[in-house]
Specification:
427 residues; 13 helices; mainly alpha; 3-stranded antiparallel β-sheet
């Protein structure tokens, strides 16, 4: 029998329980959690972070930056264009690795990433970060993508968490204010996609398939505002974070399916029919994170009930027979069954989060199953790191690169850091 998302919530309301205290976790589940933690963290500290530390730094860059693209064998691609998203992800990852693991090598790389992002990507005339630089650090694309600004907020606020660097916090705050002043849709709510260097709106460019708004941009604004609120609990920021939660509940999350809609006209009319399983499972735990920082018990209860059920729907609809989460569905029955690195990473975190919230072992088993798929299929045991994409049969697609504006040390390194942070004290 197929339930709607709304009926799932009604049925689940009486069953939902708070996170089981760690000392009350059944021994079998505790052993499973410890094994998951140890294996994931071993990959994080023995493979992922070492790969990116070794290969991301461009030793020949006179500006002391990083490569904009990395080949499958780890070789940096000299002269490749540098994406603000990749460089923000460098900054976030190395900052978080220092904060969580006390890894001093990551701290040095966080300093390097901060200096490059703030000196070369930052638009000193108009504020905000450019979308792309040439290999030599000159501006290649001065577009102000809302999506890109959100990653810079996420990164600058994380760097502030580890250093107390006031300039970094001010960059994050200025970006927040620029988004609210220029990119926010004052008539219909939410945020538009793309702007010129001096903040004139550019229709039809961005993450929205030529439309005005996208789930993806809003998801990363939610993520960024959550992290900024951790270090700057400003009242306006709080109000905007609450508004973002309402936007997801009222416009983006389809209450009948439990999936997010992806693309919208300005008035939130939905364009196309897609189920993006990776974005949905990622949203399930980022939604919970946003609720936690706001410290509103009733709001958090409602969010967490929804978070678990969103995870449940992805488990039921988005998994293949080998234990991996497929990419997406378009329309009624057209599936993209490719296996993406970032989707698997978010599935581990999302299912682990659902287990922590509900105590239901089905989610722990799901997180374990996805991790087992990763360690058997996605880890590149020859060159290090992960294969970015596999076909539906689990064969690596090696025609691309291992690092660029869309592939970097973020989803999978964050997965390792989340697993460590949540489970490090289990014995």
């Amino acid at each position: 029998m197929k339930f709607t998302f709304f009926s799932f919530l009604i049925a689940f309301a009486t069953l939902f329980q708070a996170c089981t205290p760690k000392e009350q976790i059944p021994q079998e589940e505790k052993a499973q959690l410890i094994q998951l933690r140890d294996e994931v963290v071993a990959d994080l500290t023995g493979n992922l972070l070492p790969f990116w530390k070794k290969y991301s730094v461009d030793p020949n860059d006179p500006n002391k930056g990083f490569y904009g693209a990395i080949a499958y064998n780890g070789e940096g691609i000299a002269g490749a264009e540098k994406s603000n998203v990749l460089f923000a992800r460098y900054l976030w990852t190395y900052s978080a690795a220092y904060r969580i693991l006390d890894d001093t090598e990551s701290l040095e790389l966080a300093h390097r990433a901060y200096n490059y992002l703030s000196n070369y990507f930052w638009d000193k005339e108009n504020g905000g970060v450019f979308w792309g630089l040439n290999g030599d650090g000159t501006v290649a694309d001065a577009t102000k993508m809302t999506y890109g600004q959100s990653f810079a907020i996420y990164a600058f606020s994380e760097y502030y968490r580890i250093t107390g660097n006031e300039e970094s916090l001010q960059h994050a705050i200025e970006l927040f204010r620029l988004l609210e002043e220029h990119t926010k849709d004052k008539e219909y709510g939410g945020y538009l996609e793309s702007y010129t260097a001096d903040w004139e709106h550019i229709p039809g460019i961005g993450m929205a398939m030529g439309r005005s708004k996208s789930m993806n941009t809003h998801l990363h604004i939610l993520e960024a505002y959550t992290n900024l609120y951790r270090v700057w609990p400003d009242e306006q920021l709080k109000n905007q974070l609450v508004e973002m939660i309402d936007i997801f509940r009222n416009h983006i999350l389809n209450k009948n399916t439990g999936h997010q809609e992806l693309y919208f006209e300005r008035d939130w009319t939905v364009f196309g029919q897609y189920d993006s399983y990776g974005h949905d499972i990622e949203f399930s735990w980022l939604f919970d994170e946003a609720g936690k920082v706001l410290e509103d018990p009733q709001l958090l209860k409602n969010i967490q009930e929804a978070s678990v059920q969103i995870a449940r729907i992805q488990l039921e609809e988005g998994m293949n027979n080998e234990g991996a989460m497929i990419y997406e569905k378009e329309g009624e029955d057209h599936y993209n069954r490719d296996i993406s690195w970032w989707v698997q990473a978010e599935a581990v975190v999302g299912f682990l989060n659902a287990y922590e919230l509900s105590g239901d072992k089905i989610y722990l088993d799901a997180a374990t199953e996805v991790w087992n798929y990763i360690k058997e299929n996605m880890i590149d045991k020859t060159h290090g790191g992960w294969f970015p994409n596999l076909d539906e049969n689990g064969n690596p697609r090696t025609e691309g690169v291992k690092g660029n504006g869309w592939t970097g040390p973020y989803h999978n390194a964050r997965m390792g850091l989340e697993v460590y942070e949540r489970l490090h004290d289990l014995k």
